[in-house]
Design brief:
The complex is a heterodimer of chains A (about 220) and B (about 250). Chain A has about 220 residues and is an all-alpha fold. Chain A has one domain. Chain A has 9 helices and no strands. Chain A has helices spanning about 1-20, 20-40, 50-70, 70-75, 80-85, 90-120, 130-155, 160-185, 195-220. Chain A is globular. With about 250 residues, chain B is an all-alpha fold. Chain B has one domain. The longest helix of chain B is centred in the C-terminal third of the chain and has 47 residues, at about 185-230. Classes of the chains: A mainly alpha (about 220), B mainly alpha (about 250). The interface between A and B is medium-sized, with 32 and 32 residues.
Chain lengths: ~220, ~250
């Protein structure tokens, strides 16, 4: 299974490197969103809860872009039939897609967080980096898992571009709650760790539930 | 053939229970000390919320059954349960909003974790039908809908935990709304309302299933009749028209 997953993942990353579709779009989108928030909120510098909320809403919306594209190549050129004909575990497809989405999110954050720090964020996040990375790593797992599941769920629907955000965003609300609450004290004028452990626990629980659930139900999405 | 066999007694029971519940609400339960008459919406709002949530979870369990057994009847059951719960969910949001307006002066309160998580769950389930009906292949439609129902069913408790923790941050709150410290008469009224609401849900669920079965059956018979008229039997090895007994009772 790991070999099959690695092969699919390699294919996806190769396509992404050659076509440069998802990650540049996500990065551009998030910088645009920061500009919009600057004017929409009429603030030059953000801190505390506002800073944390703006960052996480932007990341969630950027995730929607990648989820919309996650099965695009398979769909457009009939690659999914090839995948399904291959004698591999269906879970391998899910793992490959989720890992690909996770990597896209990491790449996005490598661009978006420095851009955010330069453009909008008041307090410097440099000192808080370890805690921030821990929250990002946990939240990305939830985003990638649920994102891959929703991408597969909506892949066969006619109105999939409409359905993906409508399905994904309510499902990701707990991630937003926990991640935004966790980073809120990190972005405060006088940073502190706050209730980091509690919110990391909520993120971990969410990740656990949805990883197990996705592995259990994903087979049924790719049955025929 | 008679799907609605026990439907009439069930419907009468539900109607009687509902009448009893309304009688208890308006004539038996005491007026609340600080909310007065308005508090009586509680006997409608909370049972509706509990039944809707149970409906969502039941829909998820039926969806698991559907994926495990592959029988279409479980998919139909899950679909009807979720469909009814969405309607009840709308009722929960409306009555909750009215109650909030009457007792706190605002149509919406963000520090009421139950109401907020209910809104999120409701928004998620609103996508169930659009997702279901934008998939054309009927067999795949059922499978995808079941996967959605299971995912959303698992999401319900996770979401409650997250929202509740988020609100506890500023407003520590005990589960007293539905819980223990109701005086006896209020508790009795509440329990009767809950049972009435649950039996209403089951009745509606059965009615909807019966109607779906009947129209399914009708379509099948009509198709077979057309096939017989055209002189081509494309129905395969199925019993002849004269036999009214369905192949699978729920199909």
């Amino acid at each position: 299974m790991t070999r099959a997953a690695a092969a699919i993942l390699r294919k996806d990353l190769l396509i992404e490197v050659r076509t440069k579709q998802s990650v540049p779009a996500m990065a551009l989108f998030s910088v645009t969103a920061f500009v919009l928030f600057h004017f929409g909120l009429d603030r030059d510098r953000l801190d505390g809860e506002l800073a944390s909320g703006v960052l996480w809403v932007t990341l969630l919306l950027a995730t929607v872009l990648a989820v919309n594209r996650l099965f695009a190549h398979e769909r457009e050129q009939g690659g999914l039939d090839g995948l399904l004909l291959a004698p591999i575990d269906r879970t391998a497809v899910f793992v490959a897609k989720a890992v690909a989405l996770y990597l896209y999110l990491v790449l996005l954050e490598l661009v978006a967080i420095p851009a955010y720090a330069i453009l909008l964020l008041g307090p410097s996040p440099v000192d808080q980096l370890p805690a921030l990375i821990a929250v990002l790593a946990l939240a990305n797992l939830g985003l990638a898992t649920v994102g891959a599941l929703v991408a597969a769920l909506a892949a066969e629907a006619r109105a999939r571009d409409l359905l993906v955000p409508l399905l994904l965003l309510p499902l990701l609300t707990p991630v937003l709650i926990a991640a935004a609450r966790a980073t809120e004290p990190l972005f405060a004028v006088h940073p502190e760790t706050g209730e980091l452990g509690k919110w990391a626990g909520v993120l971990g629980l969410y990740d656990l539930v949805f990883v197990l659930l996705s592995v259990a139900v994903f087979d049924f999405l790719l049955e025929d | 053939m008679l799907y609605g066999k026990r439907l009439a007694p069930l419907a009468f029971t539900a109607a009687a229970l509902f009448a009893l519940a309304l009688g208890l609400i308006f004539f038996y339960a005491p007026l609340d000390a600080d909310q007065g008459f308005m508090q009586k919406i509680f006997y409608l709002h909370v049972p509706m919320a509990i039944v809707a949530l149970c409906g969502f979870v039941a829909g998820a369990i039926m969806a698991i059954q559907h994926l495990r057994t592959g029988l279409r009847q479980w998919d139909v059951r899950s679909y009807v349960a979720i469909h009814l719960s969405i309607i009840l969910g709308l009722g929960v949001l409306v009555t909750g909003s009215i109650w909030a307006r009457a007792s706190w002066g605002h149509w919406w309160l963000w520090d009421e974790p139950m109401l907020v998580s209910f809104l999120i769950i409701f928004l998620l389930y609103c996508c169930y039908q659009p997702l279901r009906f934008s998939i054309e292949d009927p067999e795949r439609q059922g499978r995808y809908a079941s996967v959605f129902a299971i995912t959303a069913g698992a999401f319900v408790p996770v979401n409650f935990i997250a929202v509740r923790l988020a609100e506890q941050y500023t407003h520590p709150r005990v589960l007293s709304e539905t819980g223990g410290n109701l005086p006896g008469e209020m508790r009795l009224t509440f329990l009767v309302s809950l049972v009435a609401m649950a039996s209403l849900f089951v009745t509606l669920w059965k009615v909807e299933l019966t109607s779906k079965n009947a129209s399914d059956q009708l379509r099948k018979l009509r198709r077979r009749l057309e096939g017989a008229e055209a002189g081509a039997d494309d129905e395969g090895p199925e019993p002849p028209i004269a036999d009214p007994e369905p192949v699978g009772a729920m199909r």
